[in-house]
Amino acid sequence: MKRFDLGQLLITPAAQEVLITHHITPIPLFKRHQCGDWGEVCEEDAQANHEALRTGARLMSVYRIHDTQNVWIITEADRSYSTLLLPSEY
Asked: Rounded CA gap, 88 and 63, in Å?
């Protein structure tokens, strides 16, 4: 169930390369994020996301792509866009 708007979907070139390398399409990851499946975030970040749903703050999810590779999805507070990126790009 959709819990918030994603806005424009953006993917950094480095994150796109990781997804291509591992034969993963980004749309399922964006859908998980939009439904409140925050992936591998710590409990504190999960709580912050639940609060952000109520207050309209920024949202963040972490998804494991490979044994040692994660990607992040960040939706801005104004919900104008969501970006899929590598942690090193933040």
From this structure: 14
Cβ atoms 84, 29 nearer than 8 A = yes
Over its length of 90 residues, how does the chain's per-residue pLDDT go in tens digits? 899 999 999 999 999 999 999 999 999 999 999 999 999 999 999 999 999 999 999 999 999 999 989 999 999 999 999 999 999 999
Joined tokens for residue 19 = 């997804």
Question: Residues 64, 53: contact at Cβ < 8 Å?
Answer: no
**0.85 exceeded by pTM:** yes
Q: What is the DSSP letter of 22?
A: T
Residues 6+ apart with CB under 8 A from 87: 62, 70, 71, 72
- Distance between the two ends of the chain, CA-based, in angstroms? 28
